[in-house]
Structures are given as C-alpha cells and as structure tokens.
Design a protein that fits this description.
alpha/beta; 6-stranded parallel β-sheet; 42% helix
C-alpha cells in the first residue's frame, strides 16, 4: 500500500497543471510542504523498520499531514496535546526550534532507542519539552480533559499572578480524531470547555478534530461529526479542508488569533483522509473495497500542496519530485544509521527493569521531608476530629503554598458534603477554592492541566464509587506522564477521595464503596489512608510534599465513617487527636502493645482492631496494631521490621476479600520470608447494601476478635 501511494503521488505531480493562483507567502507554503514530506517519509520508514525487525510502531500520519498547518500557526510556547497521527504538526513545530531534529527523534521512538528525546525508549509518542508538545499515548480522547484543564489553569494563573511555564498569551492546542469525538471522555471535556466559556471564564484552547471519516473499520456517519461538534454552545466551530493548503492556513490562522486574543475556545473541524490503513497490521481490504481505498489517494494532502506550489510557479514538477526524493533519502539514511547504531551497540535500548521503571521509582526523600516540615503549623493545636483535622491541615497548606488549588463538586460554597473544606473559599477566595461541574473526568482533567501549569492541585472526588467514572484520568494520563516523558513532564497532585464503608444512617453502595483494587496496580501512584486525626495531618502534608518534590500522583483516601467520630469506646474521646504524629512515606504506625500477635490493618480497620485489642486484653492476650497508612505502595520494609519477633500475624482488611489490600500484605509477608502464622479476615465479595444488611458483608470487630482467639488458642 505504501508503494501504491508513493507511486500515485509521483505520477500525479508529473502531470500537474502549471498555472494556478499565486501564493501570498510561498516560503511558508514550502515550509509546510517540507513538514508534510518529513511526516510521510517517516511513515514509510516506520514500515521498513518493522520489516527489518528493528521497528515496533506503524500507526502513521499519512493523509493527516495537513495538521502541519496547525503546528506552523502556533508556537513552541503553546502547549500541545496531540492525536497520535500528528507527524506533520510535530515536524512543523520542530522548524521553529533551532537545532531540533524531528526525523531522528521520531525514528528513535519507532525503534525504542534510549536516544528518543522524550520517552527514552519506553514508547513511541509525539512529545518534546522544547517544542511544547506534551506526550500522549493512544488512550482514546484521554488527553482532552487535561487539555481543557490546562487552558482553564492558564486563565486562572493570570488571575492569581501565578507564573506558569508559558507566556501569558499562550494557548493550548488539542487534537483528536473523528472516532474519538464520540468517546464520553472527549464529549465530557468539550462540554466542560463550553460550560466555562458560557460563563466567560477564560478558556484559551484550539480544539482540532482530524476527521478522516473512519475509526479503524467503523465509518463515521456522513454529516455526524459536523453536527456533533458544532452544537457546543460558546465554542466557535470552523471547518477546514486539508486538501486546500492556502485556505487551510488562512482558516487556522484566524482560529489561532481568535483563541489567543479572545481567550475562548475554537473548534477546527479538519477534513483529512487516512492513507495506509489504521496501522501496519491493518488489512483494510477486510472491510473496504479496493476502489474505495484507491479513491482516497486523490485526497492526499501532499498532492494538494504540490499542485498549489506547481500551479503558482514556485516549484516545477521536477523540483517537487527532487524535494520529495531528497526527503526520502534524508529519512532513510537516518533510519539505516539508526539500525546500524543499534546493531553495533553505539546506541541502545533500555536493558534493565530498573532503567525502565526509573521515572516511577526515583525518590527525593530529603526534599520531601523538608517540604513536609515547611507545611507544619507552629503548634500542634487542639484535639480535633478527622474531618476537622483535614480542614485545618488544608488551611495551613494553602497558607504556606499559594500555588495550591482546592476544587471539586460542592467543595467551595457548601464546604463539602461532610464539611471538610468548609471556610476555605472564604479564606482563600474563589480563584483558589472553586466548585466544578458534576463530572469526575473534568475534576481530574482540571487537576492534570493545572499541575502542568505549575499549580499543586488538590481535587476532591466526592465518593470513592464515583472515581470509577474517571479512573483512566489517573491510570492512563496522570500516572503515566513521567514514565512516557522520562520525568521531563510531571503532574504532581493530591486527589482527596471520601470513601470506604461503615457510614451509619446513610449509604448503600455508592456512598460506602470499599473497592480499592482499581488503584492498587497503577504504577507510581501513592495511596494514603488515615485512621484518625493523629495521622491525618502528617499524611496529607507528606502527600503534598511528594506531589511538589517528586511529581507524585497521590490519593488521600478519607474514611467517611471516621470523619466526625469522637470515641473509640463510649465517652473516651480517643479519636479526637492533636497534630502531633509523623507519617514519613512508606512507614507504618503502631497502636497498642502486645506480644501474642500483630494485627495489620488500616483505616476503619484500625479502629475496629484497637477495640478488638481491648477485648483480647481482657482474655489475657496482648496484640500490637500495625497501621499500614500507606496502602499503595505497601510499606513492605517497615512492615517486616515491625513484625520481626511476632509468631502470629492477623491481617484485618476492610476491603473486599478478592482484590483487597490484604492480598498484597499476604504476598509481601511470604516474599519477605516471614516465617510465622498468617491469617486474613476481610469483607465479603459483595457490594455494600443499605442499612443493617451492610453488617452481613463487611469486616466486623467480632470477626477480628474470633480470628485472633483462634490463632492464639490453636498453638
């Protein structure tokens, strides 16, 4: 197929008309054409590299090279989050940066070489900090919420006089395909952009839908994309033809100017064509006729640009062919040199697991400790409930770090469903503490974008069950950014989530969710769970310090049932605590003091286990409670240290039996060589029902006591 497209282009330029409209700026059109040529020949090279066994990626940009007009109309100081068919854009952006070598950079990504300047061999992505391109992977539409969030953050930064990595007039560029335009992630993000623009909230974003009419094998219905994209209120819609380079540049220039001057969103519906199938492995003849495939060759944007140059007398047909072949030679020479470099060992690929995971595992403990220290209040303060302590800690953090933003559903005016953010808006203003629309993808997308703009976002997801609507924003976007950019980009944040079970008088599944498995296998993410006000402040400060110093994506999971609880036992006030604990990352905490067994737990399980320990003490059995605090990653080394000397370990896990935290604890003990007896009790594999029926499926204090007694008395 590549050969057929190649031949078609060369055949048609040889008979191209030599008379046509003059070009107002022929040099610009020549640069545009060169960017297109580089992209096309890189696609050819990708397939050649795969045939040699050295290349691994063949999703190309052929037919989409008209997006070079967007790359040329914007600048390297306009952050771009791109569709994966953005070869033309990338090449055009590189023309603006002296010393850039986009051909080498793309080829290095195709062969997974550590010379790839963005991912260092981890994945083929379009990205480069010097070009303002934030790397994206192929999750459908997942970059759009971040892009909208970044545009929002640029406007908010100006209001707060916050310095971002970009100038004040920067705009965000976000491209996506026509099939992606149907994805709920994209639709929700576009709705969010319109929602903000409707309220005259600055939203400087250029949205580009590259419409080739087909998503892998599924056709977009005729007229559907225009109808669906033009319906968003407050988003100006313009259509652009990728086969008319002069009109395309004029349209894109006007759209960029409108976004830049008006700080408002514009949607460019860019008509493209997909040449050479979805990817190298795509057998198009399985779902398209040969006539249909060949018919698309006439819509080749390279051919359209070549005809415009020939018609205007800027180049002859021979000049075009010479330019085309010269680019082929440049790209293929670089590709052959890349292969030879790998064969000879002059360049390399990632060779160890440690090297692959370095962006996920690099630590700055001294800097984290110093930042956590700087966030501490001068005095420990009064004894408070968990909710009040989190509120006080957020207050202190926002005072110490003016770049911190707190936002989510109902967090500002109302102060949160449980009052945890009460008073923050009044104290720090609506620019730093604000309500979002009801869409968790938007909440997290706003955080992703704000973090790129240099803010420290602390978004709230109202309930744990609601996270699942938007979890890919953490898994596919937030957690992966440092990995795919070799830590050149980061998005440190602390996502507060009210969750877990045992909420009395109000609940059911969506307000008592105890499923955390979705967070447990996301590489690089950190999840902390306080069990009382005593640990909450230090844990939250450490999460913020990790976000600031290591770019960590942290989840602060707050047990709803403990928010306002005061007593461990009736009237004792034990759960109202002062801010006097430490919570270094990857360390555990100890409650009670007994030698007969250790109970490993977290969250609500700590309260139940402390009560269980009191009952066991009455039976002459001493138990030590080990509070994990950090459930992702588990504090394995500190845990094993704590358990040294115990012959019995009981794991009390309030999450579900399958997929719960306890599974990881058992594995850690086995792999760590723990030689004693291990037993686990956990909640049932069930959703949490309403009312008293919840007690039938959730881990109980009685179960902890019974399991502990059996372990001790069986010896």
């Amino acid at each position: 197929m590549a050969e057929a497209i190649d031949a078609h282009f060369l055949d048609r330029i040889r008979v191209a008309a030599t008379s046509g409209p003059e070009l107002a700026d022929p040099d610009r059109v020549l640069r545009y054409f060169d960017a297109q040529l580089a992209s096309r020949h890189l696609d050819f090279a990708a397939r050649w590299l795969q045939s040699t066994g050295f290349g691994y990626y063949t999703i190309g940009s052929s037919g989409h090279e008209s997006n070079a007009a967007v790359g040329a109309a914007t600048t390297v100081t306009d952050p771009a989050l791109l569709h994966y068919r953005s070869g033309g854009f990338h090449a055009a952006r590189a023309q603006q940066h002296l010393g850039s070598n986009p051909i080498h950079d793309v080829l290095a990504g195709l062969v997974a070489s550590t010379r790839d300047p963005i991912s260092r061999g981890r994945h083929k992505v379009f990205g480069h900090p010097d070009l303002g391109i934030v790397p994206q992977t192929s999750t459908i539409g997942s970059q759009v919420p971040r892009a909208v969030g970044l545009a929002f953050a640029l406007g908010r930064a100006k209001a707060l006089r916050h310095r971002t990595p970009w100038p004040e007039d920067a705009i965000v560029v976000c491209s996506f395909g026509d099939a992606s335009a149907n994805h709920s992630t994209t639709v929700g993000a576009l709705n969010s952009a319109a929602y903000c623009a409707h309220q005259s909230i600055p939203m400087p974003i250029l949205l580009v839908c590259e419409d080739n009419g087909i998503g892998i094998s599924t056709r977009s219905p005729r007229g559907w994309i225009e109808r669906s994209l033009s319906r968003f209120p407050s988003i100006e819609y313009v259509r652009a033809d990728g086969t008319d380079p002069v009109a395309l540049m004029r349209t894109v220039d006007a759209a960029v100017a409108a976004v830049r001057s008006g700080r408002r969103p514009v949607m460019v519906h860019l008509e493209t064509v997909r040449l050479m199938g979805h990817a190298g492995s795509d057998a198009e003849l399985a779902y398209r006729t040969n006539a249909d495939i060949v018919g698309d060759y006439a819509r080749d944007p390279l051919l359209a640009c070549a005809r415009a140059l020939i018609g205007a007398g800027v180049l002859s047909a021979a000049d075009v062919e010479g330019r085309y072949e010269a680019m082929r030679e440049t790209v293929m020479s670089e590709a052959e040199a890349m292969v030879e470099s790998l064969r000879s060992g002059a360049s390399s690929r990632l060779a160890t697991a440690e090297a692959v995971m370095a962006p996920l595992t690099e630590r700055r403990p001294i800097a984290v400790a110093a930042t956590e220290q700087s966030l501490r209040p001068a005095q420990s303060g009064p004894r408070l409930t968990l909710a009040a302590m989190i509120n006080r800690t957020l207050t202190d953090i926002m005072a110490a770090r003016p770049e911190v933003l707190v936002f989510g559903e109902d967090v500002a005016v109302k102060g949160g469903v449980y009052g945890v953010t009460k008073g923050l808006r009044k104290k720090y203003g609506a620019a730093r503490v604000f309500d979002t629309l009801l869409d968790e993808q938007t909440v997290l997308g706003t955080a992703l974008g704000a973090a790129l703009a240099g803010f420290v976002p602390i978004p709230e997801i109202q309930y744990l069950a609601y996270l699942h609507n938007a979890e890919d924003q953490l898994r596919g976007e937030a957690a992966s950014l440092e990995f795919f950019s070799d830590s050149q980009f980061s998005n440190g944040m602390v996502v507060r989530i009210a969750g877990l079970a045992y909420q009395r008088g109000f609940g059911g599944h969506f307000h008592n969710d105890n499923a955390v498995a979705v967070l447990r296998d996301v590489p690089g993410i950190v999840v902390a769970v306080p069990s009382s006000a005593a640990e909450a402040a230090a844990l939250l400060r450490t999460c913020v310090a990790l976000a600031v110093e290591e770019g960590r994506v942290c989840v602060f999971l707050e047990p709803i049932a403990l928010y306002h609880r005061v007593d461990l036992d009736d009237g004792d006030g034990e759960l109202r605590c002062a801010d006097d604990a430490s919570a270094e990352f990857a360390t555990t905490a100890i409650h009670s003091d007994g030698d007969d067994l250790a109970i490993v737990t977290f969250g609500n399980g700590v309260v139940m286990s402390r009560r269980a320990a009191s009952r066991l003490r009455e039976r002459g059995i001493g138990a030590t409670i080990v509070d994990l605090r950090w459930i992702v990653p588990l504090p394995v080394d500190d845990l094993l240290r704590r358990l040294d000397g115990f012959d019995r370990v009981l794991i009390a896990d309030e999450t579900r039996h399958d997929g719960g935290v306890g599974e990881g604890v058992v594995t850690a003990l086995v792999e760590g060589g723990y030689a004693g007896t291990v037993r686990r009790v956990a909640s049932k594999n069930s959703f949490v029902p309403l009312g008293a029926a919840a007690d039938l499926v959730l881990l109980s204090e009685d179960e902890i006591v019974s399991a502990a007694l059996e372990m001790v008395e069986s010896d």
